[in-house]
Structure formats: C-alpha cells, structure tokens
Amino acid sequence: MMYGDKAAPTISVAIPTHNRQELLRRVLAALAKQTYPMDQFEVIVVVDGSDDGTEEMLKALQNPYELRVLQQPQGGPSRARNVAIAAARGQVIIFLDDDVIPVPQFVSTHAAIHQHDPEAVVVGRLLAYPIGERPGWERWEEFDLDQQFDQMREGRLTLKGTHFYTGNASVGRRSLAIVGNFDVALKYQEDCDLGQRLEMAGAHFYFGDRAAGYHCGYRASFSIWCRRHYNFGVYDFVRHNRNGDGQLPAALRDARARLRPVTKLILTVAIGRPIVSQLLSTSIHGIVTTTDWLHAWSISRCGYSALVNLHHWWGIHDALGAHAYPSSIENADVVTEPLQPWTPDGVPSPGLSNGRG
Fold first, then answer.
1. CA 174 to centroid of chain Cα atoms
2. N or C: which end of the chain has fewer CB within 10 A?
3. Mean pLDDT, the chain, as a whole number?
4. What pLDDT is stored for residue 216 in this prediction?
5. What is the pLDDT of residues 88-131, one digit of tens each?
6. Is 154 exposed, middle or buried (0-12, 13-18, 19+ CB in 10 A)?
7. How far apart are CA 145 and CA 81, in angstroms?
C-alpha cells in the first residue's frame, strides 16, 4: 500500500499534546533513536489547543521518521487520540503520552508482540523518572505502578482491560474497528473503558516489559492529586453504571469487599460525612508529610493508600447523587513545574518479559 510515493508504515505512534512543548520535544527526540526501522513507523502528534509554541517547534523539527502534525481546538486527550486513530496508516497503533520518554527498543517490542499475535493488546511499562525530588504522593504512584508491573512480568497479575494505560499501550486497528474508539464523554477512565471493551471482544493482553518509557511529567499539588483520585471514583461509577439503576454496581461492591479492614473502617466512618472526610484527609496528609520528612516510607505508603481509597470512594459516593466535595480541592490550581531535563541515553534497559495474561 502506498501513501504518496511512500509505503504505508506498519506502526503508527499516536501522541496527544497540550502545552508541553519541551517535554514533547524530548519524547520525539527519543523516538528518533528507536531500534525499529525508521521508515516502518510514523508519529502522529495531535496538538490539542496548545498556545505555548508547540506548533512552531514541530514545524522546525527534522526527524528520521515521518512526523505528521494534526490540530484540534482543545477537546481533551480522548478526542485527540480518536483524531490520530482516524489518520493512522499503520495496522498497529501505539498510544504514547507527551510526557513519556521511550527507551530505544520501545517501538520494536510493541511491534514484535503484535507480529506474534494480531489480536494482541500490549501494555508497556512506565518507569520512574530517575532525576529530581518528587513529593511523596508521586513516589507512592511510582511504587504502586512498579508493583503492578512486577506482578505482570512475573505472572502474578493477570492483565485485564482495566490495565490499558494509554500513557504506553498498543492495539491493532482491526480490534479498534470491532469495539470502537475512545468514549469522549468520559473525562477520566476512558482508557479503562476501551480496555474493557477490548477484553470483552476477546483481545489477548500482553505486558511488554521492554516496551518501556520514563514518565517525566509535571508535578501536581497535593490538592490536585486528591481531586484526581476523586474524579477516578466518579468516572469509575459512571463507567460501571451506564445502563444501571443508580445503585452501586456489583464490580464496585466486590472491590470494596476486598479492601483491608482498616480501609473499610475509614470509609465507613467518613463516606457520606463530608466534614469527617475532610478532617480525615487533612489529618492523614499531616501524618504522611511528617513520615516523608522522617524517611519512614513504609508508614507513608500506608497513609497515601488510605488517602487514595478515601478520595476514590468519596467520588463514587458523590456519583451516586450526594455531591459534597470541598471547593478548596475542587478549585485547586495545577502546578506545572517540569522536572529536570534528562535523556535516557546510557540508562540500562529493562529486562525482556512479555507475559500474557
């Protein structure tokens, strides 16, 4: 198949971006160092209403691969990914966030798994950014993801649709044609929603340990972090209850039943009581701030886990119809301080392990 005077690429890398010019530049530079043949993949960047000079930066770039730049008024990453899907010419689409710097074997690992199994859905590893101090809640996120990825690699965690993290994941065009694209009505959990549709359609999920990327995005304030997990809870309910009766869906009831006894106690005391929830959140935040300072990381991890569950289930409760989330968190500003510049050159690559769930 030809596109102009060029053969169609086998792989399309789709990157939505909004006001992250410098981070995006580093992501694109890392893609220029891939071991996969440069003439066999394309990169589609969808500029989602950026006003930071991203378009001008992209026009000035010279890359060894084909770079295609599309634009849209700001409509969010899901809409941008759908634009990229519609424009993609590759039979495999790799979704990559604009703050994830891929290692050199990133594209080739995704491609190899899809060549082995055309029905594959690949979840690639997200690695912790190796430079710079991060607040405790971000270190907790890294620790939690690392645990999940280690369990996937070792076969102790079966991959499911809810593990379809679009910061680093790939799927065949044929599979998307069957289940449809991202649901733009979902502001959060849209990747899990697509992943679950792929799972229900019989897709085969693989973990690509060597299809890795270093997550080096912007820092967020503690309030924004709490709000994020609250929103995850809201859209967790929406996603599970699209055709439901407004009651707590069975999947969420099962998830709550599996929580630790201490977490269940916290939720029993706090959920439905916004003042108590806020006091608990503030108190736990004070504890983890102190334990972070003391380097008592095992205690901090427990505290951050409790905060995640508190705000997540607070969001689920509000989605059931009793919105009471504090405006101090709802209206908090995002801190957009980029981490220190860094390139993956010379960093040892992760070991190969592509376990199938």
1. 23
2. N
3. 85
4. 87
5. 999 999 999 999 999 999 999 999 999 999 999 999 999 988 77
6. exposed
7. 23
- How far apart CA 235 and CA 83 sit, in angstroms, is 23
What is the pairing mode between strands 120-128 and 168-172?
A: antiparallel
Q: At what angle do helices 261-270 and 297-319 cross, to 10 degrees?
A: 50
**Max CA distance (Å), the chain:** 66
pTM above 0.70? yes
CA separation for the pair 127, 218 (Å, rounded)? 15
What local confidence, expressed as pLDDT, does residue 341 receive?
Answer: 35
Nearest-5° angle of CA 47, CA 52, CA 53?
Answer: 75
Nearest one of 173, 198, 195, 164 to 84, comparing CA atoms: 173
pLDDT for residue 250: 76
Span 280-324, pLDDT tens digits:
999 999 999 999 999 999 999 999 999 999 999 999 888 887 555
Specify whether the CB–CB gap between 229 and 308 falls below 8 A: yes
Asked if residue 3 has pLDDT above 80, the reply is no
Find where tokens 């859209």 sit: 235
Q: Hey, what amino acid is at 101?
A: I
3-state secondary structure 80-132: HHHHHHHHCCCCEEEEECCCEEECCCHHHHHHHHHHHCCCEEEEEEEEECCCC
Distance CA(35)–CA(31), nearest Å, equals 9
